[in-house]
């Protein structure tokens, strides 16, 4: 967020000839539509599914039709039911990982930004080590200590992403702390907690929100990768990654079993990335002036 004294020196952009401004980003709208449809599918799966997750009465590798919108898999389970369940798991993994990464990352990042000397160097080195630590290896360690569950996958992904968020927050907070209005606030007697809540966090949240949106897409891909390797949600939970792993042997005879989760996975990640770009365009004053 640009300080008020700087904003005051920026000339106001002229409105287009029609007298109306385009305050809506097309990128944001498309992203919301793509991600919103999959989020709606995940929400519906909480209350209704066409078949039970372990119902194998549909016949092996049946084609679309006959009560099965996308057909069945090699065990006779309804593919559309699995796709709906997979959308819920993907959204849960993305949200859970991002919330965990934000809680840990923002706390560590703010503390690292206020640290000085050897403590600052130690925290920075610790964050660099966490970032370099492979998410898959961390997931394997957590699964070995607990079990292969969705919670274990979320914990591993959230911890891995928290280091990225913490380093970004540290950089942003240090940049804000160097501004004159922070010095003025401290000179007037404002305590550090009030300075952080009233000046620091409001100035870093636009960039932080965009980064967290990108982390959501990465978390969805990471969960799919872990489930593909058997480190995600166990059966009968139909994660998209597990569906892809199970469908690779029957792709030529039943391509829908692989195409459906693969296409939805790509659309969800693209939608979230478009939302991140749209939010950045909406919150960036320079971008807004170019669009108006």
Task: Provide structural commentary.
The chain is mainly α and 292 residues long. The model is unreliable at 1-23 (pLDDT under 50). The chain is built from eleven helices and no strands. Helix 3 runs parallel beside helix 6 (150-177), helix 3 runs parallel beside helix 10 (256-283) and helix 9 runs antiparallel to helix 10 (256-283). It is a multi-pass membrane protein.
Mean pLDDT across residues: 81
For the secondary structure, the number of strands is 0
Q: N- to C-terminal separation?
A: 19 Å
Number of helices: 11
Strand-residue fraction? under 5%
Major beta sheet, specifics?
none
State the helical fraction.
55-70%
Question: What is the alpha-carbon Rg in Å?
Answer: 23 Å
Task: Based on Cα principal axes, name the global outline.
Answer: elongated
Order of helices and strands: HHHHHHHHHHH
Give the class from helix and strand content and strand pairing: mainly alpha
Poorly predicted ranges: 1-23
InterPro entries: BP-dependent_transpt_permease (IPR050366), MetI-like (IPR000515), MetI-like_sf (IPR035906)
Subcellular location: Cell membrane
Protein name: ABC transporter permease
Keywords: Cell membrane, Membrane, Transmembrane, Transmembrane helix, Transport
